[in-house]
Each structure stands twice: as C-alpha cells, then as structure tokens.
Amino acid sequence: MKAKAALWLLLPVLAGCSFLTPERPYYNAHEVELLTENSSERLVYFYGDAMEIRLEGMPLRLVPQGPAQFGPLEVNGMPYYREVSPPTRPRLEALEDIGGQYFELRVGTAILGAWLFDGDRWYRLSTALATGADVAVSPKPFTPGFQRLTYSEAKSVRRMIEELGNNGPVVVFERAVPSSPPYDFEPAPWVYRRASLRIQTSVPKVPLSPALIRPWRVLAKGSYASYTGRQPLGLLACTQTAYVQIWQRATGNQLPRPPLPDLKYPRSCVAAFFWGLKPTGGYRIDVASVEVKNGLAKIRLLMQKPSPGARVTQALTSPYIVVEIKGTPSEAWFYDPSGRLLAQAKAE
After folding, report:
1. What does the pLDDT read at residue 125?
2. What's the pLDDT at 117?
3. Which of helix, strand or coil describes residue 196?
4. Is 164 helix (H, G, I), strand (E, B) or coil?
5. Distance between CA 290 and CA 216 in Å, rounded?
6. pTM above 0.70, yes or no
7. Cα separations (Å) of 259 from 118, 218, 247, 248, 262?
8. Residue 7 falls in which region: left (phi positive, over 0), alpha (psi -120 to 50) or beta
C-alpha cells in the first residue's frame, strides 16, 4: 500500500501537473509549436487518464500506450496530435560570421533561449533576449532541454531537429510567446502548457560588423557579495583603483579572495551590478547584451528568481555580476529583461 501511495504522489510530477490532485478523470495537454521555413506544425502530447475529448470540435480518443506507464497517451492511435499549416514568417533570424566564431541574433520577438546544431553537436547561443535585441554571440557546447518541455518531449524534438541538420547548421529559438492562438478543448485540460520553437535551417554567412561582435565579458558572478544594501547598485570603474574597490565589494565574503582578473582589452572599463540583499538563495544574474555608444554603456541583464517551492539556501544572499566592457564609457545604465532601468553609475 505504501508503494502505491508513493506512485500517486509522483504522478503529478511525471505528468507535468501541480501538486494539487484533480478530480478524475483528467488530462494534461503539452503543445509544441515548430515553425520552419516550410511549414508551421503543432504537436500536442496528452497525459493523464483514458478518456474522449474534443479539440476544436474534433473527437480525440486518449488511451494509455502501455500498462502502468505515465508517459504520453495515444491520440487516435498516434503518439501525439499533429496539425500542419502553411509557414509563417517569425521575426527571428540568425546570421553566421564568415569567420565562424560568432552568430548574430536578430530578435523581433522575445525569446527564452537560442541554440545551434551543427550536424554533430549542440551549442547554446543565448539565454533570454528581449524584443528588439540585435547581438553577436559565440556558441558554447550545451544540449538544450527547452524550458517549457518535459525531458522526454525535448529529447523527441531534438531528434526531429537533428534530422534537419544533415545539410548544414540549424538554429533554434525558443519563443517566449507562441505565434498561434491556444486550442479550444472540451473538456478543458487540467494543465495546458505551450512551447514554441522557431527552427532556422538556412543560416547565411556574412561578415558581421566589428562593433556588433560582443564587446564585453563576464569577470565574475555569484551570490555572496559584501554589499549589504537592499536596493540595486551599479558601479563603473575606469581606473585601477576603482576596479580594485569593485572587486573587493564583490568578493569580500570569499575566503580566500580570488585574485583580481587581468583585463582583456587594452582600453576597457569594469561595470558591476549588485542586486541587493535577498532572503534566500536561487537569485542569479547574467548579461544579455552590452551596447556602448556616445560614452554610455547600456547593460541589459538576465535576472532569475527562485521558482515557488524550489529548494534554495535559507540564508541571506547578495547576488552580483562584474563585467569588463571594451572602451571607456563615462556612464553605465543597467536594465532588467523588460527594459526597466534598475541603476545608473558614473565612471570612477
């Protein structure tokens, strides 16, 4: 009896539900939108009990694929529901530098991440980017899980994408918002989760602008700065003395203190952002983009908060990030992913 009870406790996790138990029978629907140059496909995986439903008025019979398994249900005898329609024109594009070290991402709609499959390996190009971003990025080896897919769904989708990568590189953008409207289900699912992937199978090679290729690098980031204020703080150091002061504030709680990193660029400044004291762990900062123009460095940050119910350190933390910026701006402005100004700093 205890083993059976444990399985029922695990069922919401395996089926992608919340920890509240729905009335039975019930089902969940996980939709994946695949946008390519040739078509727009919508795949829907179903989880839960055997039952009959309607999708846009079409009857669907959901049955288990095997005894006592928690994977996707069969949909009218198929592993998922599939709908194919003419291609759309997503406002997302990747260009490859002729040198092969950088890709330019032109983001006309917000994304959760971007990845590259070169026919052999997967690489991450970027984490979340806001609408309007135009950045040059360098690929780093990384197998995508895609934020809104389960492990098995992501594995299945990667196989589909890899089949497209035989003739050249494939770039995949995970959109923040799907391009198609949600389906009408009857009865409604207990959970309806939607993911949208823009798959670019033709990546032009062009000479990227030297000004576009990333003029910055992260020197350090972490959760235990010695900064104890509760409001965000930005700093900009263009002298060695000010750089040392930033480093001491960022790493003052570390023993032994890490050595001061050598700067990469002949002429550069160091910008630092301190998020302020947080009640727990799980807060993380990264850099989405840096733009330097007319003496002003605009730094767009990626800011992650702990998910509800996540296991995190139950102690005060002070998240920070320190960035080297090519050039000598006189001022730095720090923005959150939505474009809201968080802090300003003048060069010291």
Report:
1. 92
2. 94
3. strand
4. helix
5. 7
6. no
7. 37, 15, 9, 10, 9
8. alpha
In sign, the C-alpha dihedral spanning 14, 19, 20, 21 is: positive
Q: What averages of pLDDT result for each successive group of 10 residues across the chain (348 residues)?
A: 40 44 86 93 94 96 77 92 89 87 90 92 90 84 90 91 81 94 96 95 86 80 93 95 94 89 84 94 90 89 87 90 91 91 94
Q: Which residues are within 8 A (CB) of 244 and not within 5 positions of it... i.e. 6 or more apart? A: 260
Burial of 117 (0-12, 13-18, 19+ CB in 10 A): buried
The predicted pLDDT at position 18 comes to 45
Buried b / exposed e along 260-282 (16+ C-beta atoms within 10 A): eeebeeeebbbbbbbbbbbebbb
**Rounded-to-integer distance, Cα 20 and Cα 7, Å:** 15
Tell me how far apart the terminal alpha carbons of the chain are, to the nearest angstrom: 68
Q: What stretches of 182-319 adopt beta strand conformation (E)?
A: 185-186, 191-200, 205-206, 216-222, 233-237, 268-274, 284-293, 296-304
Kindly state the tokens that stand for 66. 């095997």
pLDDT at 309: 78
Which of 16, 83, 72, 5 minimizes the C-alpha distance to 43? Answer: 83
* 3 state SS for 104-155: EEEECCCEEEEEEECCCCEEEEECCECCCCEEEECCEECCCCCCCCCHHHHH
CA distance linking residue 270 with residue 60, whole number of Å: 58
Q: Nearest-5° angle of CA 133, CA 135, CA 136?
A: 165
Strand partners, 299: 290, 334
Which two tokens mark 163? 């089949």
Look at residue 67 in the predicted model and tell me its pLDDT: 63
Beta strand 170-175 pairing with 191-200: antiparallel
Residue 284: CA atoms inside 13 Å, Cβ hemisphere, count?
9
pLDDT value for 9: 38
